[in-house]
Amino acid sequence: MNKHTLASLAATAVLLVIVLGSLLVVNWHAGDISQIGTEEVAGALFDDYGIAFLVIGLVMFTAMLGGVFLAKEDEK
Q1: Quick check: is 9 in a domain?
Q2: Which residues of the chain have pLDDT under 70?
Q3: Domain extent at residue 58
Q4: Residue 69: how many CB atoms within 10 A of its CB?
Q5: Which tens digit of pLDDT belongs to each residue from 14-32?
Q6: Is residue 45 in some structural domain?
């Protein structure tokens, strides 16, 4: 195994622990169906589910960087 493989495995393990930890910590209470506005949605995203929202953003950013890295052509 080279350094890149070990680093990618370590990063994957850390992200997996963060994602699973945030999913287990959040209290996923079910609510009734009602009309809500953008203020309530923003409040729920950033107050109640802020950590999960940030972790998902980091995972999406990492996936984007990985896609750019894979799409990059090799110089010869």
Answers
A1: no
A2: 31-33, 76
A3: 37-71
A4: 8
A5: 999 999 998 888 887 776 6
A6: yes
51 in Cβ contact with 22 (< 8 Å): yes
Predicted TM-score of the model (pTM): 0.43
Helix/strand/coil (H, E, C) string of 3-16? Answer: HHHHHHHHHHHHHH
Residue 13 lies in a domain: no
Residue whose tokens read 């729920």 = 44
Residue 21 lies in a domain: no
User: Of the candidates 52, 50, 45, which has an alpha carbon nearest to the alpha carbon of residue 20?
Assistant: 52
Q: Alpha-carbon dihedral of residues 11, 22, 65, 1, nearest 10 degrees?
A: 20
Return the number of other C-beta atoms located less than 10 Å from residue 50's C-beta: 13
